[in-house]
Amino acid sequence: xxxxxxxxxxxxxxxxxxxxxxxxxxxxxxxxxxxxxxxxxxxxxxxxxxxxxxxxxxxxxxxxxxxxxxxxxxxxxxxxxxxxxxxxxxxxxxxxxxxxxxxxxxxxxxxxxxxxxxxxxxxxxxxxxxxxxxxxxxxxxxxxxxxxxxxxxxxxxxxxxxxxxxxxxxxxxxxxxxxxxxxxxxxxxxxxxxxxxxxxxxxxxxxxxxxxxxxxxxxxxxxxxxxxxxxxxxxxxxxx
Length: 240
Prior knowledge:
Layout lengths: L1 E6 L12 H8 L4 E6 L12 E3 L7 E3 L1 H10 L5 E12 L2 H7 L4 E6 L4 E2 L2 H6 L2 E4 L9 H12 L9 H4 L19 E2 L2 E2 L9 H19 L1 H10 L3 H8 L2
Parallel strand pairs: 1-2, 1-6, 4-7, 5-6, 5-8
Antiparallel strand pairs: 3-4, 9-10
Helix pairs in contact: 3-5, 7-8
């Protein structure tokens, strides 16, 4: 898979893309990442790419010409272009899996007050948000997207079956994990995990995962129930 990241700070990615699992995926050729400096497409002196916002207000906005030129230069027929923005569609495990099937993903990092809104109409397929908060720049958001989708690429994760058991798969959190020692500061590993009975262990983990989800993220269960409603049930809820 090939990913192009368009940013004002391409050097931001040097460390993350040269270490750990992502570093190995790139070294093995499973994943290739092209870092593009938006300032290379600036027309004004000094590589300036931003200007004041129409209507007044704080912050600077990146000019449309810079971004459109960069996106067009690095796009191909199979490219899926994505803007990282707090106003985008929520990024989830399901979206990460979806992105992992793309041949070429182009990620546009937002900076400053944002990017001229006309860019989205001209050359961007969709906007994605990694959470309900604002970052100092979109580089970290792009890194989150790349890291999450890479887990769904063949050969990136050592035990590929573990990916299917992680949090947010099947809309529930992962079950709690334990290792040695069996007892630590008065807290012991649950006896079911020490039983050697595979069915008992499986049942314990399923129940523990559900309990964790209800306690911490009940909204996930609500989303799961609505996603799996029949058309008839959905209509009944909508009109009652």
